User: Which sequence fits this backbone?
């Protein structure tokens, strides 16, 4: 019982941190996606303006 | 007084156009009855146990059927830009919203009052024992459901995925009203009288109606006029 | 770049604080008499619920201010705090569930507090979903703001559920609500230590998410410009 009690406490802490870490990872991924998309669009705009 | 007259005009318009085609009403009614029949396969319909889940069965059917009515409430105004015309009319936004909610409320009540006897017959259940209280619960809970539903129907009317979005958004929001309605309906059908610990559900229902009606009236202008 | 530096500083302080809290709760505080080691989950469970409630409250206020001023900054704040709030809601649900597995022997039970907590989670996920369905930023902000104000009622009910119903979930323990005596002062102190640390972390996440939302707006504006050609 005591062993299991301690183990589940560890699971609880791990779950809390894992969820927050997962959220941070989604934030990082979104940041990267947004930056690359903005860059692509800016390049497209520049090209179009030069061709005009 | 002016508000009340405007509400009646809008509700009357909605009900008149609904009763001319009966599109929504027929769809919602037959859908609710189909669900009630389907439940007989999910649980043993002859058991005593069904009495204890009567409220749950009924209100699930009403909630599903209600979504059909609510979906059409504002979508009906989309062709020919009727919604813009309504918004441009001298009727206030609150009256417009309350009128639409009142029309939906009446339609939902019709569905409920037709389904209740059908349910009683199909599952061999007497529900007349405390009908005044039962009617009160139905009136209060349906108003809660329609106020939330009409509001969200207005929010989602311009979306491509409207039919999907509306149920996903409204069911979690409606849970307080649905939970109270299920609990009270079961108690009123299965037992005699409401035990004191269940009065919390009546209070919850009344509180839900008051809070969401005032929120909806306060926000109607923003939602409808932008 | 100063803004960036402030965020790093806040994140650093929060990290140090959280590690220090971990040290205290694991090594300095004794096991609880009835529950054993598992009670320490409380130190994450309660503060993360407080954090998400604060986030949802902030989002409701920001939504109201958006509807009043039509300043898109408020909408940005609302979406950021809802999203971070949902992350903390999930932490609260997960930690609570693991605690319940030991103490009650089950992962989940349908008592009032747990049910409302789950409803709150679903409602705010619906909020995030609704935002994704709009193409036009103005109507997205307006309709999401209205939903956000409606959604806050479920937070209030979740918070008061332990007073309104007899629940399996433990009743209020913090002395601000009970007048004291329900919890050991040292343990209560720990909750108040971990809450601001998590709030600081949440504030950093909200700030990052707000910047992303601004970038998203820029992106949408760029898209419209490229289509205009």
Assistant:
């Amino acid at each position: 019982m005591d062993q299991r009690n301690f183990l589940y406490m560890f699971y609880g802490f791990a779950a809390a941190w894992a969820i927050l870490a997962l959220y941070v990872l989604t934030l990082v991924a979104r940041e990267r996606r947004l930056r690359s998309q903005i860059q692509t669009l800016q390049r497209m705009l520049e090209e179009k303006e030069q061709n005009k | 007084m002016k508000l009340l007259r405007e509400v009646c005009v809008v509700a009357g318009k909605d009900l008149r156009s609904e009763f001319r085609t009966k599109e929504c009403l027929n769809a919602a009614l037959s859908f609710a009855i189909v669900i009630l029949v389907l439940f007989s396969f999910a649980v043993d319909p002859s058991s005593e146990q069904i009495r204890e889940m009567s409220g749950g069965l009924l209100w699930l059917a009403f909630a599903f059927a209600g979504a059909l009515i609510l979906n059409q409430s504002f979508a009906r105004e989309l062709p020919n830009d009727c919604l813009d015309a309504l918004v441009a009319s001298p009727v206030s936004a609150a009256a417009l919203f309350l009128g639409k909610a009142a029309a939906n409320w009446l339609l939902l009540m019709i569905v409920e009052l037709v389904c209740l006897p059908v349910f009683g017959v199909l599952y061999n259940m007497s529900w007349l024992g405390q009908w005044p209280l039962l009617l009160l619960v139905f009136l209060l809970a349906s108003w809660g459901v329609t106020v939330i539903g009409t509001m969200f129907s207005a929010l989602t009317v311009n979306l491509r995925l409207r039919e999907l979005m509306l149920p996903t958004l409204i069911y979690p929001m409606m849970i307080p009203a649905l939970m109270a309605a299920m609990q009270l309906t079961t108690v009123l059908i299965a037992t005699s009288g409401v035990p004191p610990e269940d009065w919390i559900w009546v209070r919850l229902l009344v509180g839900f109606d008051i809070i969401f009606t005032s929120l909806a009236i306060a926000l109607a202008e923003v939602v409808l006029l932008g | 770049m100063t803004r960036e530096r402030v965020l790093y500083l806040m994140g650093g302080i929060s990290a140090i604080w959280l590690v220090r809290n971990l040290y205290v709760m694991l090594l300095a505080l004794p096991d609880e008499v009835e529950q054993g080691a598992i009670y320490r989950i409380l130190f994450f469970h309660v503060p993360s619920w407080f954090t998400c409630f604060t986030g949802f409250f902030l989002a409701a206020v920001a939504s109201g201010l958006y509807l009043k001023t039509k300043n898109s900054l408020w909408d940005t704040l609302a979406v950021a705090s809802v999203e971070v709030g949902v992350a903390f809601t999930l932490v609260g649900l997960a930690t609570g569930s693991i605690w319940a597995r030991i103490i009650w022997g089950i992962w989940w039970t349908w008592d009032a507090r747990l049910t409302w907590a789950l409803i709150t989670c679903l409602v705010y996920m619906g909020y995030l979903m609704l935002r994704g369905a709009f193409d036009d930023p103005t109507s997205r902000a307006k309709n999401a703001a209205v939903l956000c104000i409606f959604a806050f009622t479920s937070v209030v009910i979740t918070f008061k559920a332990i007073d309104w119903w007899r629940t399996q979930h433990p009743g209020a323990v913090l002395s601000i609500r009970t007048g004291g005596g329900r919890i050991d002062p040292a343990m209560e102190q720990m909750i108040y230590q971990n809450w601001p640390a998590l709030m600081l972390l949440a504030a950093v996440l909200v700030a990052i998410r707000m910047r992303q939302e601004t970038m998203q707006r820029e992106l949408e504006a760029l898209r419209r410009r490229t289509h205009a050609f």
Remarks:
- The helical segments of chain A are 2-51.
- The mean pLDDT of chain A is 87.
- Chains A and B do not touch (no CB pair under 8 Å).
- The radius of gyration of chain A is 23 Å.
